[in-house]
Amino acid sequence: MADLDDLYREIILDHYKNPRNSGTIESPPALVEEGFNPLCGDEVKVYVVVGDGRIADIRISGQGCSISRSSASLMSQAVKGKPLSEVLEVLARFRRMMGVGEEEQGEPEVADVHNLGELAALQGVVKFPVRIKCATLPWNTLSAAIARASD
Ligand code: ZN
Question: What CATH number is given for 2-150 in this structure?
Answer without folding.
Answer: 3.90.1010.10
